Amino acid sequence: MDAQSYSVQHRAAKTVAEDGGTMLVLTRNDVEEAVEIGDVIAVVEEAQRMLGRGQAVSSTIYSLFTGTDPAILPEIHGNFQYFSAYVGGDMNAEGIASSASCVQNPTKFGLPYAVGLQLINDITTGVPLAVMERSRLTELVTPAFSAVGAKYLANDGPQAIGIIGCGNQGKTHLQAFAELFEIEAVTAFDMRAEVLDRYVAEMAADTGLPIAPAESAEQAVRAADIAAIAINPCEPIVKYDWIKPGAVIIALSGFGCELDRDDVYPRIDAVVIDSAENLELLQSRTDIKHVVQLAEIVAEDESCRQDESEKIVFVHSGMAVNHVAAGHLGSRQAVEKGIGTEVEML
User: Which domains does the chain have, with CATH numbers?
Assistant: First the structure.
């Protein structure tokens, strides 16, 4: 679904709560059934376009425990964050999200790393229209944002993809890249040998692409035209010399802690960032030749790339406008498909 088809479809779509006071509740499975990665890429691109044109508002991310004395918290606890946004244009959508990143969830509790809720509200009345579990939404929105960035930053032609970190984000990133690019090769790396082996087998079967396991992160980065780094805990592993001319490296931490910043930032040709706040923070703390916000690039419909040999880093994390756009899409398509549970709220 491209931006134009999104616009036409959703102007005519049935509202989520057209009779007022009814809220749609979507589980993780409902979200998975309602939306696909290609559709999410389209709405995330549109949300970034609206943001770049001044037709969207995205709050900063509030972290609950910033500055809190760890002694008052339980030994195992989540990192709780909250953010909201409004996306104008044909979406005309407002929402707020709560998110908890819990490092030990996958291994200790068998739960997704990131959990929480996405709420979509009526912009006129403030009535909640839909609420959905966020773990599947995050698995789709994050790689969709990466794919939009790669679309505007990568060179034309077939792409060699590098995946560092073979969990859920590693899977959905490859699926997202496959939506937009002709992929000639994939190289994947994970510190956990069993996770890497399973990824290679499952994703080769899922995508039909040739996937080679790498012996190190360096090998995967060196082979890539586009590399996505989805590791946790985040450590500075990527060196400037690993990045081949013309490559795009996508770091998902929000501030590029996956990169050896003292080595990469002063030498890299361009850094593209997600939010205006992170843009100002990065400019104040690092010596970078060229740094720009992706929304500005999308709004202008052109790349910041000056030539085919430039090395570019795209640093991003969760952005409220992207999640609201995807949550709005999910609620609309769930209504159209008869998915979810309606609850009388008022």
Answer: 3-138+320-344 (3.30.1780.10), 146-315 (3.40.50.720)
